[in-house]
Amino acid sequence: MKSCLFVIDVQTGFVSQNTKYVVERIETLLKQSLFDYVVFTRFLNTGGSPWVNFLNWQHLISEEERNLVSSLQPFAEVVFDKYTYSSINQETIAFLKHSKIDTVFVCGIDIDCCVMLTAVDLFEQLIRPCVLTYYSASNGDQESHTAAITVLGRLIGQHNVLQEPLDSTVLSKYLSASE
Fold it and tell me: Which of 68, 73, 118, 158 has the most crowded CB, counting CB atoms within 10 A?
């Protein structure tokens, strides 16, 4: 089986004081070329969305905020747009099945929202999610980030929540554990 990295919503509108550190970490990860496939997602907010209607959250509506962070754009050969927290939909599932991917490494912004929901949806589709917490961040505070790690361990299994930096040796260990 092939390895895949999902880079969730690392967009200019999500980069803040709480999340900016993760951009360099993800770039370093991508430069290692560890994965057979790399998938980026972009969250697109619209006027009438639940975020606008129920949270009065007006971000990620403009093209400027929707853009992937410029330093990561060269790595973004496959990009899926989404209008929900989760990146898992018919299009992404078809891509994963066609590519014969049974384990997806997930990282990005926000670990307590889109990263978490994507991992849970992968799990429920019988695709093993491995959340890379070192390469994920939250626009909430550190408490939100830590809480997400705890909840993810309960939802998808603590052994699928990876808190260390990734290299080829660490990746091989996790891929062999899924066989």
Answer: 118
Which tokens hold the place of 55?
Answer: 């949270």
The Cα–Cα gap between 171 and 18 comes to 27
Torsion of CA 19, 136, 41, 25, to 10 degrees: 80
Total residue length of the chain: 179
- Token pair 């994507």: residue: 118
Which two three-digit tokens encode residue 4?
């895949």
Query: pLDDT by residue (tens digit) across 86-143?
Result: 999 999 999 999 999 999 999 999 999 999 999 999 999 999 999 999 999 999 989 9
| Interacting residues of 18 by C-beta distance below 8 A, sequence separation 6+ | 137, 138, 139, 140, 141
Angle subtended at Cα 98 by Cα 37 and Cα 27, rounded to the nearest 5 degrees: 15
